[in-house]
Amino acid sequence: MQINRIDETLAVSPQIAPADIAGIAADGFRSIVCNRPDGEGSDQPTSDEIAAAAATEGLAFRYLPIVSGMVSDADAETFGAMLRELPGPVLAYCRTGTRSATLWSLSEAGRRPLPDILKRTKAAGYDMNGVARRILNGGRTPTDTGDVRHDVVIVGGGAAGIAVAASLRARKPDLDVAIIDPAEIHYYQPGWTMVGGGIFKPEQTVRTMGSLIPQGVKWIKAAVAAFEPANDAVILDGCRVVKYGRLIVCPGLKLDWDGVEGLTATLGRNGVTSNYRYDLAPYTWQLVQRMRSGRAIFTQPPMPIKCAGAPQKALYLSADHWKRTGVLDAVQIDFMNAGGVLFGVKDYVPALMEYVNAYHANLKFFHRLIAVDGPSRTATFEVTAPDTPKETVTVSFEMLHVCPPQTAPDFIRVSPLADAVGWVDVDQHTLRHKAFTNIWSLGDVMSAPNAKTAAAARKQAPTVAENVLADIAGHGPVAQYDGYGSCPLTVERGRIVLAEFGYGGALKPSFPAWLLDGTKPSRLAWLLKERILPPVYWKGMLRGREWLAKPEAVAVRPQNAEIGKP
């Protein structure tokens, strides 16, 4: 007998037998609900037999038979009422448990967010994406077949989404494209490191979304709740349905601030800050300016994260300020990294280590931040170094710069588009979904093993645009992405180590070494970061001008024999 727990009040299971009841009672269950009609299988115990065995063990029993594939709205309401009335926890069963899980999902509509319902049922072994639209509709069966349809629908209006929309329209101005995003504001996130270092003003990193949506592209200002790839449909909050010919998924990733105990309660005060948020980057600079002595801690969580160099960029710019103001020797700098290396591409490590040593920073690897106590100014780390017992250490601080844990957004992780760990499952070269041939993904949310940076999205957007238009024309992929990413490591004010690399850590410099050697700190690279890249972003990338980003042609067309839309 397999019992699959949904939450603390309910578990579901396949068919049970009278002989199982004693064990169910011993496991702490106080009620049983049968959702399988009598006589559905020749070897199936009747509900009366189960009821009698339950009574012997002192368990309550209810019979709510559901014909397979025919869970009605009224059934879901009745099931929800039963759960509220019966002593818990409750075990519900049918032939496989799916009908019971469906009943619970629909009965919880309006009480729980859709991603939470899908996450819990998925963890129990049941995929409820097929009833996501009903859940969003308050547990009731929708009557619509689609509110609107576009040739290309883009989920996400960040750097990747607007760039790929602009690239598509630059190639085919009459293409019917829509972007789905609820945000009013668009941020130039690479600039927040500079805000935290006192170089940029926060307002330099902000534009209204409406000013950036490419001309002719429809903006659907709503949040996505679920996907129905078999029906070529995106389901919005409120159960509106957007149909598509091709879908491009690029909503970015989720900064999991709640993944560190106590962090959200103290962000922006008690010396706790992060350049990963627009409203906190100015606080970073305030703390740096005020600090004259004590310990400053900079953290980095497990990979993957957005802009893997950002945690140490904050360290370098802070330390540079303390050096320039003559207080560096009074400041203890700790870089607490959950990983085991300073930077993932070894060619850049020597130059970075020179600055680590010059700033007297302590590198502590395999240290993952798990809790923060703001009022007491202490941070707790889980230490998992190889070949040593796991331990936790708590240290005090005057300043704590946190890079939060990061995951795919909830509505992606529980969707049919996700791989085993939650990212949109794409071919790393064509950026086409591995299972659904009319879906592509780019930016931070997709599964390719590249650095999650705006520079990567700048290269990915033309690749996706070329391949989507080739597909519309009836051809196979024509462009491929080589894993390019860039991380301008601001090692001091006025100098940058410009890391540019592709898949496997291969160096991908944009300039000849005589002009700019990215493995060494450079004033030219600083000029690029401070003066050139912001206009390239606002006036180039987001407008379909692909400077230094032309897509690479597919040399040997990928074999798509195993790719098929269900």
Write a structural description:
This protein has 566 residues and is an alpha/beta fold. It is globular. The strands form eight sheets. Strands 6, 7, 10, 11, 12, 13 and 24 form a seven-stranded mixed sheet that branches. Strands 1-2-5-3-4 form a five-stranded mixed sheet, sandwiched between helices. Strands 15-22-16-17-18 form a five-stranded parallel sheet. The model is unreliable at 557-566 (pLDDT under 50). The protein is 27% helix and 22% strand.
Task: Quickly describe the structure.
Its cofactor is FAD. The chain has 566 residues and is an alpha/beta fold.
Question: How do the helices and strands line up, and which of them pair or pack?
Answer:
Blueprint: E1 4-5, E2 10-13, H1 21-26, E3 31-34, H2 47-56, E4 60-63, H3 73-85, E5 90-93, H4 98-107, H5 114-123, H6 132-136, E6 148-155, H7 159-171, E7 177-180, E8 185-187, H8 192-196, E9 206-208, E10 218-220, E11 224-228, E12 233-236, E13 241-249, E14 254-255, H9 263-266, E15 272-273, H10 281-290, E16 294-300, H11 310-324, E17 331-337, H12 349-358, E18 361-365, E19 367-373, E20 378-383, E21 391-396, E22 399-401, E23 406-407, H13 410-413, E24 439-441, H14 454-472, E25 479-480, E26 485-492, E27 495-501, H15 523-540, E28 552-553
Parallel strand pairs: 2-5, 3-4, 3-5, 6-7, 6-13, 7-10, 13-24, 15-22, 16-17, 16-22, 17-18
Antiparallel strand pairs: 1-2, 8-9, 11-12, 12-13, 14-23, 19-20, 20-21, 25-28, 26-27
